[in-house]
Amino acid sequence: MERLLGIAHHLAWLAFGLYWIWSARGVKRPVRTELPWLRLAAYWLPQLLAVLLLGPGEWFADSPLRERFVPKGIAVKAAGLLLTVGGVALACRARYLLGRNWSSEVQIKQGHELVQAGPYRYVRHPIYTGLLLAFLGTALKVGDWRGLLAVAIVLASFWYKLRHEERWLLEHFGTPYADYMQRTRALVPGLL
Length: 192
Known about the structure:
Structural class: mainly alpha
Distance between the termini: 36 Å
Radius of gyration: 18 Å
CATH class: Mainly Alpha
Number of strands: 2
Strand content: under 5%
């Protein structure tokens, strides 16, 4: 059973990756885009570090990062899988709703539209919320402190990126985006 949960966990991430690649086709052309070095330093390197932290435990030998923060067991792994699948589903749904407005980097697109439907009614950045849930689920599956460190790194990276995005969206959309920010939280409904 534990092996099946592990396979299902990997399949959830694989489905996410395949959908992300497939859905990147046909996005609108950008009219404003961030600098490549900023993308690398603020998003891609932290994400890579987080993924490496979630890699095989043998990489971390007897370091404190290998200490468990949750007990081993099927229930914990199942909860991790549920969080991961739920997070991936949320991120994919939000990505679908953005349609051609989506970008992996901070951009303003030609004919950029402000999407406020579906999960965007509850949080301004549901893709990040979904990915954070998926990383948290993976951290539970791993069960070591390195998993929580990975989640913290991803959160810091997303928080920096969403602040950057929001400055640009506020400049582009003005009052409608300011109103949206007033009534809708960034990542967690009612909290954050």
